[in-house]
Design goal:
The protein is an alpha+beta fold. The protein is built from 31 helices and 25 strands. α1 packs across α13 and α20 crosses α28.
């Protein structure tokens, strides 16, 4: 017992001295390293957890856009039951059509639908309508060709909620309506009222069965609240009347108007008294929020079950044995799956590349820590610490830092990308945290399996590769070769996407997932090529160092020889930085080439459609002063007039070919500048004696003129016009002169002198281009203008051309090919992945230089005592870092070029580059090609960063004193 001031303490004589906790001691000893590790894990988890959620977001948005663009007529599930059986009593037939009965079956049908197919109650509808249109005898209804108008009667629920009343009131059904009710009330939409001249109070009669016609009084005119919503768009006739054409043999087909009268739901039994064959229907609109791309196979399965499976049997049991269900939603899903199948593999390439570089950086961080603590861990092993205990302590020490950082990174990912599946983000965050926790213990376990204090030198120029390393490198070579061969032969979209028919859930899953081992191997192909190149360069790297060391020793000055000697004595562990740099450079080159190929394909497609930077075209002739007016518009450099006739008939057949009259000089310059079928202007110049024949005189009004035929001696007087033609037209007519009938009836004779696959004036595979000087006055009038220039103002051009002209700019045309969020989202994710990989590559370079910083600082301090100047010290560090940086830069550029050239035949960028609304074929294909900027800029960045860091380190070392670095006993 002892007294300290006024406090008494009791201490046992045999008590052990307190021991500081291991984790707290280590964190206090190196707080900077712990903070750096936490930041690295946080950033990596943030990117890794955000990736699957970002993919989910743009894929789901693309699916919903595809369903929305397909219109409700195709995407709604339409169910119908035939008219009530004639064997039932009239009262039973009427009760089946009453709103309560139809509504009850609608509620039961909703329970039959299997998830993830969910009906939108706000846009779904049900009711009764006539399946046959009813002829109306009213004379005041429009009759375009003398045929009476027809009407469809529909009693659909929810009219008040989906329409605004413009005039009158909504229809009602007073009392109990039966099949014998003589008069009903109805409403019509504003479009029906405008086209059919219907007003409030109008009475329309429709035929009835064995009694007087049914009178329908219009009590209101309504406007749809959402005319493109499923409530109105599933049956467009309820909203917009149509002009029906009857098939006839005459020149003018017979037509009649078909409209709809909207009845109150309680008036449905009255339709039994008409010959319209009334039927119940239930139209189910899919809920957009429930559509997710991850559940695409299940969604297709639910649709198939409802169309022709167990779901349809349940619907028939609830409604009628002859009930039917139909929808085109399965075709829409199949089209979306095809687009996704071409995009997913490209995104996987970027994801695998960035993930590989990030994993290498994490391994480098663990290796840096293990090397920094090599002496400490060797001493612990020498003093009896077991290998299991050592790795357990290192794991706990790392987990205290990495796990909270991973949790913060996951929370940040959930905030940055609030949409997407949580499970994928959690699994990726857990994988990163596990790698971060395991890298230091595993490295220590490998290095300190045997108890030793001093290890052998591991100079890069002297150490020979082991057999295990040789076997591992040969294994990676085989994997890379298999991946490249698979990608070149199968392509990025795989080979089994179209094996099954559209709408098959297995087909949708196979075409969209890309999750098989073969697809993952294909996605790893650029990464494996970079890995193989890195291992090959590491094997070849010592050779030039040995060759250059001896000649450098004979030079004056010690800086060159010393820098090469220092570069040769670099540790073998520099394989990891080189792996990170080459993998990142290869991925960046491949990704940059993909993005550049997408941009070039869209520019090329827009140019093919327009022929220039802007196009102004009208159906008739352009105003005479418009070309000169547009030449003075801002941004316009040159205007090329065209006289295009799309109905020219070459030879004596009836097939038409677009024919354009041009000014040869200006058109040749345009074709050369746009690279669309360049040709010498002299090949198209019309001879002086070429003149068209005059058009035939119009016949008398009472006579029916017959098509005139070209004259046998030639269609035009004088020499034939030289023509530029497409290969198909040239193959059809050869090089002999042949007549061409123009739209105004005049004839010209042309002879094909130039054959080109493309031309600015007309897009397509059939065209003829001639000199305007050889055409008549009417065919030679300009109908289109092609404008070249920069930053043209669309508003100014449209104002000058007038409302009748179609003005299209290349930038607007290019934007049409980004039709889906699936494309734009994939491009953004791809760009972020490539940028992240490049950032990790720079971080790998920094880690490599930081690892050697203490040794370099001590070296400069010792050499400075021997007379080394500051400028010589800077040159020494820069020349020492230059061989490895130059190796990585040149090797990365060459590897990226080789990866693009090897993989280009199997990569199709058409899906991600050229979206075509409506499913029309894209104008051409998008191929992968080498982008010089993507190859050179990252390589130059590596050189600049490496030399800049070395120069900065030399400058900072020169500002500090040398006492600390020269103290005896410091471990360097």
């Amino acid at each position: 017992m002892s007294e300290v001031g006024r406090r008494w303490t009791f201490t046992r004589r045999d008590a052990e001295p307190p021991v500081a906790p291991w984790i707290r001691t280590r964190l206090r000893a190196a707080p900077g390293a712990a903070v750096a590790l936490a930041l690295l894990v946080l950033a990596t988890v943030l990117l890794a957890a955000s990736f699957p959620r970002a993919v989910d977001r743009y894929e789901d948005a693309g699916l919903r856009r595809a369903v929305a663009d397909a219109t409700a007529l195709r995407t709604s599930v339409q169910m119908s039951a035939p008219p009530p059986s004639l064997g039932a009593t009239q009262k039973e037939r009427e009760s089946v059509l009453r709103p309560a009965s139809v509504r009850e079956r609608y509620k039961r049908i909703l329970k039959v639908i299997e998830r993830p197919l969910v009906a939108d109650p706000g846009q779904s509808a049900y009711g009764v309508r006539t399946t046959k249109s009813l002829e109306t005898p009213e004379k005041w209804l429009p009759r375009p060709t003398g045929l009476p108008a027809h009407m469809t009667l529909a009693a659909q629920n929810g009219l008040a909620e989906h329409a605004r009343l413009r005039a009158g009131r909504l229809p009602r059904a007073d009392g109990t309506v039966t099949a014998a009710t003589p008069e009903l009330e109805a409403a019509v939409t504003t479009e029906t009222a405008d086209h059919l001249h219907i007003e409030v109070g109008s009475v329309i009669h429709v035929p009835a069965v064995e009694r007087a016609p049914l009178a329908v009084r219009v009590t209101g005119i309504v406007a749809p609240r959402d005319r493109e919503g499923a409530y109105w768009a599933t049956q467009p006739i309820l909203r917009t009347p149509s002009l029906v054409r009857l098939p006839t043999q005459g020149a003018e087909p017979s037509t009649y108007w078909l409209g709809a009268l909207l009845l109150a739901p309680d008036a449905a039994p009255a339709l039994l008294g008409t010959p319209g064959a009334p039927a119940r229907y239930w139209q189910l609109a899919p809920a957009p929020a429930a559509l997710t791309a991850s559940e695409l196979p299940r969604l297709a399965g639910a649709i198939a079950a409802l169309e022709s499976g167990p779901g349809l049997l349940k619907v028939r049991a609830l409604t009628d044995p002859a009930a039917d269900a139909s929808t085109d939603l399965d075709d829409v899903l199949a089209s979306y799956a095809g687009l996704r199948s071409g995009i997913r593999p490209l995104v996987a390439v970027a994801a695998f590349g960035s993930a590989t570089v990030a994993a290498v950086v994490l391994l480098m961080a663990g290796g840096l820590t293990a090397d920094r603590r090599r002496g400490e861990l060797a001493l612990l092993r020498a003093r009896g610490v077991s290998l299991r205990g050592l790795t357990a302590r290192l794991s706990a020490e790392t987990a205290v830092v990495a796990v909270p950082a991973a949790a913060l990174g996951l929370a940040g990912a959930l905030l940055v990308v609030p949409y997407g599946r949580l499970s994928y983000a959690v699994w990726t965050a857990a994988a990163v945290a596990l790698l971060a926790c395991a890298m230091l213990p595993v490295r220590a376990w490998i290095t300190h399996r045997a108890v030793r204090v001093h290890g052998a030198r591991e100079d890069l120029a002297s150490v020979r590769p082991s057999r295990r390393r040789t076997v591992a490198e040969l294994t990676l070579l085989v994997l890379a070769s298999a991946a490249v061969f698979a990608l070149r032969s199968r392509g990025t979209s795989g080979g089994s996407a179209g094996a099954a028919g559209p709408g098959d859930p297995v087909d949708l899953d196979a075409s969209g997932s890309g999750s098989g081992s073969g697809d993952q191997l294909v996605a790893l192909a650029p990464v494996l090529i970079g890995v193989i190149a890195a291992l090959l360069l590491v094997r070849l790297y010592p050779l030039p160092l040995r060759w250059l060391a001896r000649p450098a020793g004979r030079l004056r000055g010690a800086v060159g020889h010393l820098s090469l000697a220092r570069a040769g004595r670099t540790s073998v562990s520099t394989v990891l930085p080189l792996l990170a740099l080459l993998t990142a450079l290869t991925t960046a080159a491949f990704g940059g080439s993909v993005l550049a190929g997408v941009a070039d394909a869209r520019d090329r497609a827009a140019l093919l459609n327009l022929g220039a930077d802007a196009r102004v075209e009208v159906m008739g002739a352009l105003p005479a002063g418009l070309p000169q007016q547009l030449r003075s518009a801002p941004g316009v450099r040159e205007v090329t007039p065209l006289s295009i006739g799309y109905q020219a008939k070459p030879g004596t057949g009836v097939e038409t070919v677009p024919l354009a009259g041009v000014e040869p000089g200006g058109y040749a310059r345009l074709a050369r500048s746009t690279n669309l079928g360049a040709f010498p202007a002299g090949e198209l110049t019309a001879p002086a004696d070429a003149k068209p024949s005059k058009p035939p005189k119009p016949s008398e009004p009472s006579e029916r003129s017959e098509p005139s035929k070209p004259s046998e001696n030639g269609a035009s007087n004088g020499s034939p016009l030289p023509a530029l033609a497409s290969p198909t037209v040239a193959e059809r007519f050869g090089t002999q002169p042949f007549p061409v009938r123009l739209e105004d009836g005049s004839d010209i004779t042309v002879r094909i002198t130039v054959v080109r696959e493309l031309t600015p004036a007309v897009s397509g595979t059939d065209f003829l281009i001639v000199d305007r000087a050889g055409l008549g006055a009417v065919p030679a009038r300009p109908t289109a203008l092609l404008l070249t220039g920069d930053r043209m103002d669309a508003g100014v051009l449209r104002k000058a051309a007038g409302t009748a002209a179609d003005v299209r700019l290349r930038a607007d045309e290019r934007a049409r090919y980004v039709d889906s969020p699936l494309q734009s989202g994939a491009e953004r994710v791809y760009a972020v992945a490539v940028a992240a990989g490049s950032g990790y590559a720079v971080l790998a370079l920094l880690l490599a230089l930081i690892r050697a910083a203490p040794e370099r600082t001590a070296l400069l301090a010792r050499l400075r005592t021997m007379g080394l100047t500051r400028s010589q010290g800077r040159r020494l560090l820069v020349l020492e870092a230059l061989p490895q940086a130059l190796l990585a830069a040149v090797g990365g550029a060459l590897t990226g070029w080789a990866a693009v050239r090897l993989l280009a035949p199997g990569v199709d960028l058409t899906s991600v580059a050229l979206a075509t609304p409506g499913g029309s074929p894209p104008p051409g294909t998008a191929a992968l090609h080498t982008d010089p900027a993507s190859l050179l800029l990252p390589a130059l960045a590596v050189l600049l960063v490496a030399t800049g860091i070395a120069a900065a380190q030399a400058w900072w070392t020169g500002r500090r004193g040398s006492v600390r670095e020269l103290r005896a006993g410091d471990a360097r």
